Amino acid sequence: xxxxxxxxxxxxxxxxxxxxxxxxxxxxxxxxxxxxxxxxxxxxxxxxxxxxxxxxxxxxxxxxxxxxxxxxxxxxxxxxxxxxxxxxxxxxxxxxxxxxxxxxxxxxxxxxxxxxxxxxxxxxxxxxxxxxxxxxxxxxxxxxxxxxxxxxxxxxxxxxxxxxxxxxxxxxxxxxxxxxxxxxxxxxxxxxxxxxxxxxxxxxxxxxxxxxxxxxxxxxxxxxxxxxxxxxxxxxxxxxxxxxxxxxxxxxxxxxxxxx
Length: 260
What we know:
Number of helices: 8
Radius of gyration: 18 Å
Helix content: 25-40%
Strand content: 25-35%
Largest sheet: 5 strands, mixed
Number of strands: 12
Distance between the termini: 51 Å
Low-confidence stretches: 256-260
Mean pLDDT: 90
Shape: globular
């Protein structure tokens, strides 16, 4: 299989903007949702889910996990409807390799979703995209994963500071975002997936696809680490914060009625 080339770096903190009708015109956008703000909107978000999605949500044992999945999938449907002109409940979302959500190829759009703690992260692009967010947990036994998940140079980068957790999650989210973009999943050798700053040549079998791939870290909020990956990040994405008010505005602009 041909080689893959991976570029990794960090962006300056994004300028998170409120979403406005007509603002979704670019080829690449990243959206964040603060879950505690959307409790009252959950019935409307759930009303757009398919029977399979409702069943999947019900299988989560914890109410917080049901809320997180339903909010993420409802917002994904509304956003895709704004890009494609479909009604949210009629958006066709299939599950591809390694549970990656996929749209009908005829739409010309790609999506990816990640959630952790109080946040949901959604990426929408004209090209394959992967996003990942993780809550930085000081009590997480990161050291136990280092030998199996990171190369020796990556391990050295993580452990060379007094508080290594932030670096651990920085590199972890890069690996996750990259293999979510390719549809590969972490697989059996995550240490072979490059994630340090710089340009890397990698086995295409390790990351899932040949060609050029770019991975960028960015700040989501406080104690959260996030990354986005695609085969073209020459243009910085638009970054949006989704709120109940923006849900109302977007739904109203696309001729859907709701109250929350």
